[in-house]
Automatic annotation (TrEMBL):
Keywords: DNA-binding. Residues 36-55 bind DNA. The keyword DNA-binding applies. Signal peptide: none annotated. It holds the Pfam family TetR_N. Residues 13-73 form the HTH tetR-type domain. It comes from Thermomonospora echinospora. The keyword Nucleus does not apply. Gene3D superfamilies: Tetracycline Repressor, domain 2. This is DNA-binding transcriptional regulator, AcrR family. One of its GO terms (molecular function) is transcription cis-regulatory region binding. It comes from the Bacteria. InterPro entries: Homeodomain-like_sf, HTH-type_TetR-like_transc_reg, HTH_TetR. SUPFAM superfamilies: Homeodomain-like (SSF46689).
Length: 193
């Protein structure tokens, strides 16, 4: 997942950039509700079939828009400096990861929400599996006796976009409060070990 996408033909790369730029402009102007594959195709000057072939569906388009930030985030926790990257003790690294994920989810919450709403499987594809494996590894280091797979899912559950947006907008929770709650979960996990 970390790295850059494979090389593209020049015309395909040009179309991809035009489509993503058009989608970003529509998002800026009208928000996520205004983003449709037809409008993106029209604004990019390509056929709607080109958009569908390239991205599959609206969720695929949204995830392509999220992709660069995701690649940077993955690089940071897989090979970046501590405490997010390797070289830190498990509880501190777990905390750094969850805090960074909260910031990342906050920054792209509308896009993540749209992607998850457009595709029933979107939440559990790609990045989720990597996050889960990463957390399983950290939890096993912290608590070898624990059900690491279950606990990894439990720690990732608050990052479901619909719950995150509900907490932020519906309940008025700050990102700091969410991070504090995550700290309590980590402390409980560390204490019980």
């Amino acid at each position: 997942m970390v790295g850059r996408p494979p090389a593209e033909r020049a015309d395909a790369a040009r179309n991809r950039r035009r489509i993503l730029a058009a989608a970003a402009e529509i998002l800026r102007a009208r928000g996520v509700a205004g983003l449709s594959m037809d409008e993106v195709a029209h604004a990019a000057g390509v056929g709607v079939g080109t958009v569908y072939r390239r991205f599959g569906d609206r969720a695929g388009l949204v995830y392509a828009m999220i992709d660069d930030r995701e690649r940077d985030f993955q690089a940071a926790f897989l090979q970046g400096p501590p405490p997010l990257g390797p070289g830190e003790e498990p509880a501190r690294r777990l905390r750094a990861f969850l805090h960074a994920l909260a910031e990342r989810t906050e920054a792209q919450s509308d896009l993540l929400l749209m992607a998850e709403m457009d595709s029933a499987d979107a939440r559990f594809e790609g990045s989720y599996d990597l996050y889960h494996r990463h957390l399983v590894m950290l939890i096993r280091l912290l608590r070898p006796d624990a059900d690491a797979a279950y606990l990894a899912d439990a720690l990732l559950a608050p990052f479901a976009a619909n719950l995150f947006v509900h907490q932020r907008r519906g309940r008025g929770m700050s990102v700091e409060r969410i991070r504090s709650g995550l700290d309590d979960l980590i402390a409980g996990l560390a204490r019980s070990g």
